[in-house]
Records
---
Amino acid sequence: MSSVLKVKSPYSQNVVGEYPMDSFTSVQEKLSQLQSSQKSWKKLPIRDRIQAVQKALEYFTENKAQIAKDISEQMGRPISQTPGEIKGLLERAQYLCGIADDAMAVKTLPPKENFERSIVREPLGVIFVISAWNYPLLVTVNSVVPALLAGNTVLLKHSSQTPAIGKHFEKAFQNIAGHKNLIHQVIIDHSVTGKIIEELDVQHVVFTGSVSGGQQILKHTSVKFM
């Protein structure tokens, strides 16, 4: 495996970015930081997490010009079309923040003799998000923001075509409300991705991508489907 990921523009075929690849050891180190951070993050009241996420979203407005440039260079969308996805990200994230309080509330079930019944939503831990290149903001926000609002931290593998967008998510949510290491991006190939799923202590995996990408990841795990 090359130690550097070279990203080429789909339009010009010029190299538009070079990114050091993470080793399995560096992935383990990042995961350890996420696990440590999650212990305090999950203790925040849901409304405090909502406010912290809303504050972090300001990053995407403040850096919209650079984000637009990175999207255009790495996934090939005309620069004139990119602001629409940034707007969509903010709208989607604010909607998720708006429903989080009710979604995470304890649900009391109908009474039953000799029982107290309720549904309590508890955070899982570290969520491994594998995201796609074609809508690099919208696909990712659909997983990252709900995970954080629910009290989890996120190990993010963005597409190898759009690692700059993964870096923007990492920067936006890296240190919010005094809580550091809520998101770490990892730049890895399919074999390391499969190894993370197979061997490391991640509590949930969210995958959005191609059939072939999913098949390549599964080759490196013992997961079998009927």
Note: The longest helix spans residues 82-104.
---
Amino acid sequence: MSARRATAAVLLTLAACAGDDVHAPGSTDEPALVEAAAARPVAAQDHGWIGVTAPAEAVDVAPTFDGVVAAIAVRPGDRVEAGAELARLDERLLREELDAVRAQVREAGAAARRAAVEVERAQYRLRINQAGFAAGTEPASVVEDARLEVRADEAAAAQARAAHAETKARLERAINRLGDTAIRAPFAGTIGLRYADVGAAVGPQVPVVRLVGGGRARLRFAIPMAEVTRVAPGTRVVADLADRAPMPARVATVSPEADQASQLVYVDAEFAADLPDVPPGVPASVRLGDEGLGDAK
């Protein structure tokens, strides 16, 4: 693999990982964009770790269960507020499921009531037999049989009550799922990508849109496993970006394990608050902090 393609591959991985809840599916534009980013001049690229600026917040928004998209309310570039509806899943199958579970709840409730009546009947027979035994008209074995019947009916009633409680829990889940057909923005931001259209099957691992939040860009970079002891949360680093003065940052998180394909460890850092902001997607060469560059706050 050429140096340029290796750089492009690392930049693509950095842009997709470190902090996103779900990795974004690839789009047809990604290879061209990353090749263009890798071709941009970056100061001291041969002497530092490969990095890229990333949005402060970015998440692939997906439903909590599998379903089919019935409507999408946003397009790439749209600005949305926290809680805004981004898309909605088809409710028809969920409503059919809800009706079926309601019927099961009614049936289980009736079974629980019948079991309670059987317990009362067995207890009544036990009292009659006990009175007969006291009067000398019933043998002890009849009383013991009646007592065992009460225990059996009580066990059956407990099982019926448990079945009724389980169906009521299923009903509550079905109601909650119906309320979750609206897919909402977890925070205010801008729609970066739209992965699905109306009629598409989506789920927890198949997102609908990518939401990019505001705030200052972060710095993400990759280091070889052999150098991982040089970087830890709180370590000062410096990012050299094209056409910009060196920008200090402080390491926030270090991945606990290396990427299997590249054998690199990915690091997330925060720029100093008093530095000029930079847009996401800018490639950088990252090195350990120099004393003369000040501290990243």
Note: Residues 205 and 264 are 25 Å apart (CA to CA).
